[in-house]
Write a structure and sequence with these properties.
- It contains seven helices and ten strands.
- By secondary structure, it is α/β, with parallel strands linked by helices.
- It has one domain.
- The strands form four sheets. It has a four-stranded parallel β-sheet, covered by helices on one side. The chain has a two-stranded antiparallel sheet with strand order 3-4.
- A hairpin with a 2-residue loop joins strand 3 and strand 4.
- Helix 3 runs antiparallel to helix 4.
- The C terminus is likely disordered.
């Protein structure tokens, strides 16, 4: 299969990770015009009350024309501590939280200026936690409307179903399932904290069907 082109993502959803894991090479788009309200700066976790969306506050230095690579994090707000406390509250009783906590916590306690740097460090940490060494990852150097790759930049979105992808995610045991039933396709940390080392074979065995010919007009450039 051609290289897969994905958006960057903050602790990406399980479906995003399944696509990345099952691809020999992935490119992460950083030269698009930054679209708002996407997984680029937010993730969904499970709490006793249901889904909680964690959103990184950002600053667009060039307004609506700011590229993703130029998006700054708004560190005037104590968002990092709030996000980490929310993660701890949600997962401190999950089977594998303590096993991975020491890998993730330092990243949340460290100041980052650019969104892509924070997401990159977290992504590298997740790959290490999953013990994945075979994925070839690179970042775009320019924006291409019709790239020579499988264009999935806008296939994952918090507000609509997967686009151009069929993804069958098997059910797994979640910490708060007794309160609100199973919540599919949350952040990769939900999978990691709940099933630990079994997360890698879970992602590798996920059934995927990807439409390779995608109309570039679907790009969301705002």
């Amino acid at each position: 299969m051609k290289p897969v082109l994905l958006s960057i993502a903050y602790l990406p959803p399980v479906s995003w990770m399944a696509v990345a894991l099952q691809s020999d090479k992935i490119a992460l788009e950083v030269h698009e015009t930054y679209p708002k309200q996407t997984f680029r700066n937010r993730c969904n976790i499970a709490t006793a009350s249901g889904i909680l969306s964690l959103t990184i506050p950002v600053k667009r230095i060039n307004g609506n024309h700011t590229k993703t690579c130029d998006i700054h994090i708004d560190n005037s707000k104590n968002w990092q501590l709030l996000h980490w406390r929310s993660i701890v509250t949600a997962y401190n009783k999950s089977p594998y939280f303590l096993y991975y906590r020491d890998q993730l916590e330092p990243i949340f306690l460290k100041k980052h200026d650019l969104l892509i740097d924070f997401n990159r460090e977290l992504f590298d940490c997740i790959l290490k936690a999953l013990k994945i060494k075979t994925i070839d990852v690179f970042y775009t150097t320019e924006y291409e409307m019709n790239p020579d790759s499988v264009d999935l930049r806008n296939s994952f979105h918090p507000k609509y179903a997967l686009r151009n992808i069929s993804c069958i995610l098997p059910r797994y045991m979640q910490t708060f399932e007794e309160f609100h039933d199973y919540l599919p396709d949350l952040s990769i940390i939900d999978l990691l904290f709940n099933i630990g080392p079994d997360a890698l074979p879970y992602l590798a065995s996920t059934e995927l069907s990807i439409q390779e010919q995608i109309n570039a007009a679907q790009d969301i450039q705002s």
